[in-house]
């Protein structure tokens, strides 16, 4: 990433306005066509190139001011990360190449996938610094990321089946669906036009100006305009047959949902005006935009994604007024989406190193709304959870650095780019952003922090109203340095040491200590040490607060933690009290009576707490007697203190602990989440006291007292969930009781009978709320009663059968089966009961009560089943893989990860493989094979090139299984060169385009020639030196050569197929010593063969990847673009006869293209599947097989003439012309390669246009 203030230096122009026009969208074929127009203000008189971000899109035509055609270079090194050495399989090498590839296209570094060369006719205008318009015509087919099409596989028109499309992705993903400057640091105004079928509605950013229908009323165009400067990553879109609901309390807000969901949409969003009113009052500023849109979609990428004036949310957030559990989480998500409109879209980060600011401020504002809506206890409970999440991540995985400009981390991924960080890291990163912002509030005061935030919004509002020439749009970007200056201006305080400690460094302060009371001196002698040896530990020096609850009240003491000082003396305010009754004042001012018989008679100290307000990112291990923890649990009113006491009392299984937990469980004035945690703690204490426990099982008496019938306490009353605290306890107590075990470590029979009776007597007929979550909790509880089975097998190898099941297991199975069958007839909200049943069945399998059968779960994991059910089935399958270690199941889950239409399901499956891996590094397993290594490496390297989240997920799995080093199951090749990873600067991604290449690209008079010369080799191979020079169209060229590189990649076997003349491609290698424009290729034999798919189990040092290619349009492109548009609007064209499939192996990450297209690839994940055609992903025809021999012989003849033919570099994707035969294209084509290139199978369609 570029450092602060260097953005303008690397980008010699300013973007003032962008027009995005989507001319047609075809939901059935998952494609769209359109153009963008960028208004660019030059900042330098010698501007000759403009770099634009674009992935997946097929570029037809680039023009300047609608007058001059511009040539462009396309290069995307992220399509294949590691090309330098096919033998490398370690994560350090991958991490370095991954970050280099992302930096090579990072717009904040002045880079991009497309480099447009301005025509000479524009030089005079640019010298006068006059703005110009850059127009790019493009199309998109079957995208793998950025834009997600949901098209149910049902008969009938797509709109009748609720087919829709929406933007899906994380940071900087706009380049995946339209050409743009995909950076937050380049805001501009927008005009967006979307043309759709008459039955569909288009929702995008900005104000809806008008909707214009075509004369035949079949199509309509939505015109939007966004007058507030906004960066491209904050532009989103959704198109579908949405039902529209205007918020009755706030007419600027509009809600969109899929058909038949309007009623629950109204209930879900009926409070959203309260969030707007709260934020506007808090910030003393109106909502920055003039409208706001909620769009609820199916198969959402994440629960909520915020764009300017709109948010795309998951349909699963919708709920009726009968649902309790979902309400809290949905309101939190919607409130945070509104907060992100202020900080995230209106005020965005300047660079990735500043991302912690908008994330932290929006999370902080949302936290204040939660505090107002759900109460202070809920707010502090969430802070406690976030703190624990950050502590656990830094202790188990590694440090979290919010601002990575000054230092990197020791992770297996780079934290300097949003495209390279792990998704698990990002979750902890967001939590830490919120915690640091709250710590800043504690440091400077809530009112001053709100004033700072108000100042930011006021400056941004003023800046957004100016024109581009005023240079005030920078106020819409938030950076660490500008934040520091505003805090200094508003508060007069310097927070640089604070940021240096918590933002620029990673780690949590880890304290452990104890104390003793010195009666003679009447002081508490406190010893507090830091554990600096723990992973993720931070050496803290600064203030620390300790609170002591004494007999005469609660007192705060502030200490300065210094380098070598560990002991502190605290003078007590109270004297020891002997048998004198007096109420004891608490921190809240409340006075309570306490039974002091348990405490030390000589000490006035009741309990002691370190950092009670969570002012630090710290983990405190504190030692004090059990009676102090019991007093703290009973009488401390802070729920964080009560949580600390509950966790500590797990280690003190005494009668006093039992009484304290029971009292809390029965206390209606205690926060319900604390009572829930007390129930689980009581179960653990009861299991530890099983030998001395007296009376009925723990919590049974409490439950019957609270929920039993008055006449017969053993029978539960009819459900009445109007008291929410009792509702959550009703779900929790059976789950806690199910964990009870008797002296034989099995669930007590009376507890099992008690839980089964809850099934029997459950009656929800008079309850106004749904009981689906309660029934799911009962299934979960009964599964927790299961213990490992002890059975006698009549014959060796015989598994459990219906005859040898225990009576308890039969009862459990009957209830699970009944619930599953009932769910098929009357499904409940979000199928929560089915999810619990699947989990229970897996528990029975794991403990030997049922045969281990994975096909049952695979049927529930198929696409088309509700997402929550699929996720539960994936959990079971991953757990099955861990216990059984069957390769076919592992490859089944990997096939799902590669091919499933739901991107979140793919992500979740990989996350589960990380959390519950089939094996870990240095462990032996039947799955620890070379084939699995190659499969995962391929997923990281190229399969997930269009989804950074999946790519990083795959890297996490690879790290979990193999660590950073080369997997031990791989053989070491004889000719392998061991790289020195310390000298990383010498290993650059070969796809990075050097400056010399771009200078060649500028030289219009130069073309290229192909020189083939024999190399010195012991094998009967042919070496080809290909000079990569500028493309000059039809003009003659001069040959440009460069010195040979210091390191040449090893030879690679090539399969040569149809290479159309119309799509030139450049292959670039950059080395530390020199930038090479010559590539050496080795062809092992004269005979050309079709590449075959290599099975992972048989993979060796190099693995070929079979990829289906899309046809590409000719460079003239104007007629082809018009033809595409005619196909969209229904004009029929004649299609020539289909041409045979040909195969080509070439570099997948370095491309040079003038007037040609950008890549759209479809990876075939299955090992044994045949190559697929692009249109509809149908199996390819047999024509390729029938004509393979003829093609080989023709290609052999063509090879003899290649010295005579002029060579044009070609993009990875073909531009097929129907008037040329494959042989002609081979004669006019070129051979190119790079090391470790995958084998690419290109499929020729019957028409140069893609089918819509």
Number of strands: 40
Rounded radius of gyration (Å): 33 Å
Mean pLDDT: 80
User: In percent terms, what proportion of residues is strand?
Assistant: 15-25%
Largest sheet: 8 strands, mixed
Tell me the overall shape.
globular
**Number of discrete helical segments:** 33
User: Which blocks of ≥5 consecutive residues have pLDDT under 50?
Assistant: 1-9, 792-796, 978-992, 1003-1118, 1131-1252
For the termini, the CA-CA separation is 39 Å
Family: Belongs to the TAF2 family.
Organism: Magallana gigas (Pacific oyster)
GO molecular function, one term: metallopeptidase activity
Keywords: Nucleus, Transcription, Transcription regulation
Report on the architecture of this protein:
It contains 33 helices and 40 strands. A hairpin with a 6-residue loop joins strand 16 (243-246) and strand 17 (253-257). Helix 5 (272-283) crosses helix 6 (325-342) and helix 14 runs parallel beside helix 16. The longest helix is centred in the middle third of the chain and has 22 residues, at 423-444. The chain is globular, with a radius of gyration of 33 Å. The chain starts with 6 loop residues before the first helix and ends in a 10-residue tail after the last strand.
